[in-house]
Amino acid sequence: MKTLLIEKLGSIGGIWGPGLKPGGGTQAPGPYSETEKSDRYDKGPGGYPAIWVYPEIAGISKEFTERLEKISGVNRLDQASAVSYVATMMLKEAGVDLLVSTYVTDPIMDGTSVRGVFVENKSGRGAVKAKVVIDATGEADVARRAGAPALYPKEIYNEVDGHSPNGFGIVAIVGGIDWSKYSGLRADFPGRDIAGRGTTRGAFSARLSPYDNLSTFNVQLRDPEPPLLDYAKFNAGDGKDISLLETEMRLYIFELVQHYKKTVPGCENAFIVSISPYLGLRGGPCIEGEYVFTLDDAKAGRRFDDVMYLFGENRALQHTCLKEGKCKWVDVPYRVMIPKKIDGLLAVGRSASGIPDTVLRNVMAVQHMGQAGGTAAALAIKNRVEVRSLNVKELQRKLLEAGFYLGDESRLKELRLGNKS
Ligand SMILES: Cc1cc2nc3c(=O)[nH]c(=O)nc-3n(C[C@H](O)[C@H](O)[C@H](O)COP(=O)(O)OP(=O)(O)OC[C@H]3O[C@@H](n4cnc5c(N)ncnc54)[C@H](O)[C@@H]3O)c2cc1C
Q1: Domain boundaries, position 291
Q2: Among 21, 60, 100, which is best to mutate for testing ligand 1, by the most ligand atoms less than 8 A from CB?
Q3: Phi–psi pair at 280, nearest 5 degrees
Q4: Among 109, 267, 319, 386, which is 20 to 30 Å from 119 by CA?
Q5: How does pLDDT run across 246-299, given as a tens digit for each residue?
Q6: Domain-ending residue, one of 275, 297, 325
């Protein structure tokens, strides 16, 4: 298929790339075995296996991770540039056209069908026609502008996921720290008031990790004490709110580092090397899909006939592995990517349909969803059908060919995907 990737920043990789977030939620290639414990996978807090995609990552995600690990350390700062490099090389090898430094604005509509997108860049306004548009903007920008019903994060979601709603965060890289003198992890700092709607109080979750002589500084809009209210007072789908947060959080990062310099031993010569060029999110608005995936689905390890991959949601694994004594992985159904009412569009990653808003966010899992979304779009175009009318078995067969795991032999038979079916 002729494919164009449009990215508003100058490099690709989203939060894991230019977003500067090193590691976290990653998974080494290789199978997980409940009986043979292996060093190939990480452990979550409390010791449960951090297998976000069961039983192992597959397809493009696997190739991407293998190539990434050859040139960068795992969970290290050098990963950010390596993520962009490897992803860009793989896109070029696959013959994908790239249009970076280009903002996707409005969808081109024909009734309730998306037929392409308008873009803005140095050349001015342009139009890109497409048979299928895949919305990977994180906040379902294209779908929402197309008039697709959207789900907006709610404050109450914080009860089930401490990073919800929205989970804003900007990562900064700070240099000049003398680790031999540095001992404290946090410094008390009053933070900035954000238009009376919250404060960036304290260096919450500031991670000063001894990678090389640098550290990451994960600054988040977060109240130190529960209930966590500040996240909910901002709408990640609102341009003015994003502008306000970006501005105040960047001022805060600078002021906070100055404060560290004056008060924290080992930070006397600290300086900001780089700040992520955009405000990162773990959730935010998403489509109301033909299926809305929930944390309860993940905890129950539900099976869906339109499964794309088996997902180990972090909170669900904590619950099932540690509280129930048996880890459960859940099917992620194809319908989470299909918006209600609007055709010609698939939403992947954080833009896909889930409650709480953060539930589908894992970095490895979104890569599998991306491959499934791209494959579905190609099949729909080839078969001249809308993505919502796609024969899901055909998609599943393609995913199996690509190495995805959709269940054991008996489950595949049940799904009529066994060898003889
Ligand atoms: C501080 C922080 C820490 C995190 N820690 C973890 C962790 O430890 N483990 C984990 O699994 N996950 C973590 N996450 C979440 C994870 O990074 C995201 O869920 C994941 O990156 C989502 O991928 P995505 O492709 O949907 O969105 P993104 O990575 O946000 O990518 C969206 C892309 O779309 C581009 N874009 C957006 N709008 C437009 C537009 N209008 N036009 C053109 N381009 C556009 C953006 O520039 C970006 O490149 C963290 C997130 C943050 C912010």
Answers
A1: 4-98+284-414
A2: 21
A3: -90, 155
A4: 386
A5: 888 888 888 888 888 898 888 899 888 888 998 889 999 999 999 999 999 999
A6: 275
